Amino acid sequence: MQFSNIKWINNQPYSIDFNDIYFSTDDGLLETEYVFIEHNQLKQRFTSLKNTHFTIIETGFGAGLNFLAVTAHWLALAPVIAKLHYISIEKYPVKLADLQCAMHLLPQFSLVSSELISQYSNLKLGLNRFSLAAGRILLNLWVGDIATQLPQINDKADAWLLDGFAPAKNPEMWSTEVFSHMARLSKINTTFATFTSAGKVRRGLQAVGFEVKKHAGFGKKREMLSGVFGDVFGGLAK
Ligand SMILES: C[S@@+](CC[C@H](N)C(=O)[O-])C[C@H]1O[C@@H](n2cnc3c(N)ncnc32)[C@H](O)[C@@H]1O
């Protein structure tokens, strides 16, 4: 297993391998709220949840910012008996020390982050399971390349968070194979959201059955995408 090479610049985790930032510590949380939480309507869906569980699949766990922001809303809004199943795929997990640094910068999430940190040191390739917040949150962290990990997942998503660095810098996270597996793991009304508006991503998701919409992007990004899985191919989604 290869850990990520992170350089900290002004309290911002920066990937040396991908020449890109994980998130901005100034506005990273606002971006997560805007792109991933708002455009998957997570707060409304948690509040009105009728099922006993809700499944999110994320491409790129990184330093866990999306995870922590989502779990805070889950604990505040979802029925106490329901379980959040958060599945995330990560090729280069951050080192424990980097995770601790990132989480130190986000003290509002310490309830869940301290539990995650205490279980994080035994990370291995493949599936790592974490039970957090008295079992209300189940994190399945698949460590390895998306091309080998995504095919092993069989849980249907209610929502996707596509967060694998910019497509131009990291095309492997936005391949046609990834989009096909997204279709396999989606059901009617499964949603997705992503910070990018790259044409390749829009067309790839449309080709496997997602209805895709463009929205104003966050900060300096002009546009972003979100959408819903439909029954375009009649019977693909169950
Ligand atoms: C922008 S960061 C994710 C940020 C994260 N969602 C957060 O909230 O902190 C993108 C992540 O994708 C991971 N990644 C890049 N290529 C990958 C691949 N081929 N398979 C799996 N993960 C990959 C990187 O290691 C990085 O951690």
Fraction of residues in H or I helices: 25-40%
- In the CATH scheme, the class would be Alpha Beta
User: Overall pLDDT, averaged?
Assistant: 93
CATH architecture: 3-Layer(aba) Sandwich
Sheet-strand content, in percent, reads 25-35%
Cα-atom Rg, whole angstroms?
Answer: 17 Å
- Give the overall shape: globular
**Estimated structural class:** alpha/beta
Question: Low-confidence stretches at least 5 residues in length (pLDDT < 50)?
Answer: 232-238
Description of the structure:
- With 238 residues, the chain is of the alpha/beta class.
- It has a single domain (26-229), classed as Rossmann fold, CATH 3.40.50.
- 30% of the residues lie in helices and 29% in strands.
- The chain contains eight helices and eleven strands.
- The chain has helices spanning 28-38, 42-47, 65-77, 96-104, 110-120, 146-149, 176-184, 199-207; strands spanning 6-9, 12-15, 20-21, 53-59, 83-90, 126-132, 137-143, 157-162, 186-194, 210-216, 223-229.
- The strands form two sheets. The protein has an eight-stranded mixed beta sheet, sandwiched between helices. Strands 1-2-3 form a three-stranded antiparallel beta sheet, with no helix packed on it.
- Strand 6 and strand 7 form a beta hairpin.
- Helix 1 packs across helix 3 and helix 4 (96-104) runs antiparallel to helix 5.
- The radius of gyration is 17 Å and the shape is globular.
- The relative contact order is 0.14.
- It binds S-adenosylmethionine (SAM).
- S-adenosylmethionine (SAM) binds at residues 4, 22-23, 58, 60-66, 89-92, 145-146, 163-165, 170, 172-173.
- Residues 4, 22-23, 58, 60-66, 89-92, 145-146, 163-165, 170, 172-173 line the site of S-adenosylmethionine (SAM).
